[in-house]
Amino acid sequence: MSRFPAKPDDEDDKKDVYEACLAGRVEELLRLVGTDANMIVKDGQRPLHVVATSGREDMVAVIEALLKTGSDVNATTTTDEDTVLHLVIKHAVLRLAFQSCLMILEHNPDLDIRNKNLRTPYDVAMAQEYFELANVLDGSMTPEEAREYYKKSIGDLYGGRLIEAVMNDNETEALDCVIQGADCNRVNKHGAGAIHYLFTDLYHHPPLKLLTKMVECGADVNLRDYEGDTALNLAIKKTSLRPDNTMYNVVDQLLKWGADPTHKDLDGNDALALAENRKYLDVVKLLKRQKTTMIAPPHEPPAASPRQITPMPPAQQQSSPYSSRSPVTFSSRLDPSDSPRVPGSRLSGPIVGPNREKTPQPMEYDPVPTQPSPRPPSAGAESITSAIQEDNPDELEALLQDPDANLNVPNSMGLFPLHVAILRINPVSRNDMVRRILNKGADINVKAVPNPEHDEAGNTPLHMSVARDQLDTVRILLTYNPAISPTNNEGLTPYNYAEQNGNAEMMRLLQEHQRNAERRDDPNQVNQQKELQRLLKDPEANVNIPNSSGLFPLHLAIMENDPMIRETYVRRLISLGANVNAKAIPRMQGKVLLKEGNTPLHMAAIRKQVKIAKILLNSKAQRNMENSDGKKPYDYAESNKDEQMMTLLKEYKGEQATTEKKPRKPPLTSRDPEPKKLQEKGRTKSSDEVQ
C-alpha cells in the first residue's frame, strides 16, 4: 500500500504526526506534515496547537517552522476555540510563552480572536498574571521594546533563582539560570548576590566554572554586598579555597576580569590587607604585581577609618559654631562644589546635594591635626550633630553615653542626628555613625523639619540615602525596618528618587523590602495589590468606589512601584470604566484630616510618571482640575522642575488628541478556571502616602 506523507489520512499517520509534535525533530515533523499543515491531528488540535501545549524547550523554533510551511496562525481548536497564542500562554512557562509570543507576533496574528470563554490572548495573559506579556499583547509596545521588556523581566525572575541555586549548592541549576538569562547582578533582601554566595560556606563546588559563565553573561566582579565586600575580598576570606591553588587561580582570574583590589570592607581592609593579615604570600605577590594606580589611585585617597578624626582647616576652627553658639553650618566636606544635582538634592544652603557612593576627594588645604573644640557637657542636638559633622566618632560615642542624650530632637536647621549622619561623604564613617545612632534609639522614620537652610523638608533618612545612591547605607537602614514608602513634603517616596536616578539595583532592593514589609503587615490592613487584582478579575466589580482610605482603584494603581505593573493596572482599570478624574476623598491620618483631593493626573505629575500622564490625558483626564489646595497637575510638574511633564501638560490639546484605543478585552468571566499564579508580582505602597 502506497503512503503519502504529504496528506496523512489514516490514524497511524496522525499518530506519527502527534508524537513528532510532542518530541520529534523538526525535520521529521515537517516531512510528516507535508503540505497539510492545518490537519486535525488529535482532540480537535492541529500540529501548531499540539506543539504549543507540549512544553518542549525548542517550542519557538518548531512553531516558527510550522508557520513558515503554511500553518494558519489564526486557526483555532475545535473544542475550546483557542489559537496558538492562547495555548502557549496557557501551557508554557513565562520564558517560553514570552519567546513564542514575540515570534508569533511577527506573523501578524489576529489579537481580537476570542476563545469559547470569550477571552483574547491578552485576557489569558492577565489571568496567568503574565503582566509583561499582557502589555505586549495590548499593543502598547513596539517589538523592540517588547524584547527589551522580556529581557528585563526574565533577568529578574531567573536572577532570584540563581541566588537560591548558589545558596543551595546546586551548580547545575545555577548554570541553567545563567543560560536562561538571569540578571547576574541581582541582590537579595540580605544585600548579597550570587557572585558573593559563591565564596561562602554555602557553596562547595569549585567556583570558577560558574563564575566564568556569570562574567560572560554580564556579572559585575566589583559588585559589593551589604558588608562592602566584593567577590575578590570574599575569595581571599574563604579559607577552603587555599588547597590546590584554587584561591590563587580565582584571584588571578578576577583581577584579569577587572576586579578592583582597592575596595574595602566595613572593617577598612582591602584585598591586599586581607591577604597580608592571613599571610597568603602567593596572593600578596599577585596583588602587588598589579599596577600601583590600581592599588592606590592618586586621585582617590583611601577611605578614613571609622575611628579616624577628619581634621578641619584653621579657618573653620576659628569659626566653630561652638565658640559663638551660632547655628550649625556644614563643612566643605559635605559640600563638594562639583557634585551634580540629582533628584532629592535640593539644598540651597551650605548642604549641597547627594553624590554617588565614592571615596571623598582630597581636601584643598593641607590637613593639620587639631584637637576638637571644647563642647558643653550636655548631649544636646547641636553637640551631637556637630560631632557627626566633624567626623569625630570618639566624641560622638561619649555624647551617646549621656543618659540624657536625645537623638530625636532636631538641631537649629531642622535636621536630626540621623539626617546629618546620612550627609557624610565618607561611606565608612557614615555607615558606622548611622549604626551607632540607630542602636541608641534614633527614630528611623524621623522627617526633616522645613528650614530655609535646606530643602529636605519631610525627608526621612531613607529618602536622603536613596536620593544620594548610598546603596550600602540603605541596606543598613533597611535592617531597622523603616517605612519603605513614606512621602516627603513634595509627595515623593524613596522609590521615586531611585527611579528618577535610574538606579536599578536600588529599585530592586526597595521592591524586595516592600514585599517583605507587606508580609509583616497587620492582616487586617488592606493589601492594595490584592485589592486591585480582585477588581481586575471580578466582572461585577465597580472600579469607581473608593476604599476605606478614600482612594479609588486608579489612585492605587498609580501608587504601584513597578512601572510595568503600574501601566498594566492603569490601562486595565481605564478599560473597565475607571473615572480618570476621580478625586481622593478626605481621610483621617492619625488625628489629622487630609483633604488633598488629588486626581490621578495630579498623582502622576507628583511622581513624574510621564507615560502614565499621557495615558490619562488620552483617556480624557482634565489637566486643569484643582485639588483641595487649589493646585493643578502643572503646578506639581513645575515644582519638580519636570520639563517633560510641564511640556506635556502645557501643550496637550485635549479635544484634538488621539483618544486611547478602546480595549478589546472583556473582564475575566466566572466561567474561566481559577488562574494559576506562577510568579510573584506587584509592588504596593501604603495608603498614607497619597498627596
UniProtKB/TrEMBL annotation:
Species classification: Eukaryota, Metazoa, Spiralia, Lophotrochozoa, Mollusca
Entry protein name: Ankyrin-1-like
Keywords: ANK repeat
Key word NADP present: no
Residue ranges that the Swiss-Prot or TrEMBL entry lists as coiled coil: none
InterPro entries: Ankyrin_rpt, Ankyrin_rpt-contain_sf
Record organism: Crassostrea virginica (Eastern oyster)
Ranges where the record places region Disordered: 292-383, 624-691
Pfam families (UniProt xref): Ank, Ank_2
Composition-biased stretches (Basic and acidic residues): 626-661, 671-691
Comp. bias (Low complexity): 315-332
Keyword Coiled coil: no
SUPFAM superfamilies assigned to the protein according to its UniProt record, in alphabetical order: Ankyrin repeat
Ranges occupied by ANK repeats: 43-78, 227-266, 413-449, 457-489, 490-522, 549-585, 596-628
SMART domains xref list: ANK (SM00248)
